[in-house]
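Subgroup meeting minutes
Present: P.N., E.W., G.H.
Scribe: E.W.

1. P.N. recapped why we're keeping a running log of single-chain structure predictions: easier to compare across weeks, and new members can see raw inputs and outputs side by side.
2. G.H. added today's entry (289 aa).
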Amino acid sequence: MKLNMMLSKSMLLTALTVFSLVAVSTYSVESEAAKKKPKKSQQAANKKTKKAPAKKAPAKKTAAKKPATKKAASCGENVAVTTMYYVPHIKDFCPGTKVCAAFKDAVANPKYGAGTGTLHNGQVYRYTGKTETLSPGCYTAEGAWGDCLVPFISVAADPRYYRAGDYIRMPGLKGKEITMPDGRVVEHPGFLIVQDTGGAIKGENRFDFFTGAFGQYNKSNAFGSHGFKDPSIVDKRSCTDSKKFAKVDKNTSEYRDAEEDLARFMNDIRGPSRALAANDASQSVGGTK
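Output recorded in log:
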């Protein structure tokens, strides 16, 4: 029995020794592994504290510089900024009386400005493709208010400042010799009549002069490039004193003078059919530079 107890104690001691050795060995291995590999919670913490590489700021785009736009000429309150427009005649573009492509293009061309062309039978051809009959006695074109336009007298103006039939006094024109489209020569009365409007005609001192069938480069066009130079109506950059103007107030003696002078002018230009239009091709063509 003592032997058994001694064996039992010996076995117990052996077992404890083996357990201790295993425990020490296990602790040593785990400790070394722990030093080499952090725990998951520590890995997550390390990931959070790890700085992400700094992102480069996107390069700023330099806006392309817009080309400088030229401002419209401004001649001051009492000096007019002027241009001209006219009505082409079918005979200058087509071989016969039938409307041809060249005539259609001319009517629609903004350099003419009226959007109307004159036909052989006294009718007009509109840029819309329609043929219209003018009012009796009118052989040129009709303005925005239906008035028959008179070469070198009718002007298009801004309706915000002018009404149909307003008189404009421009002393620089008075007494100037004007060759009408039918060939007769008259003196300008120095007064103008507002009878039309235009999309590009903006401002109190902006006027577009109607020159009948005379184009800008026609040598007979007094307001054109070959006309009298002072003033040169076709040049809106010209701001000479001869372009000074004033709106004529109604119920004044000056308004009655304007009526009388314009009435005399109209009597002088009245004549046979198409007196206000071109008499022949040499008169109606636009001319050359």
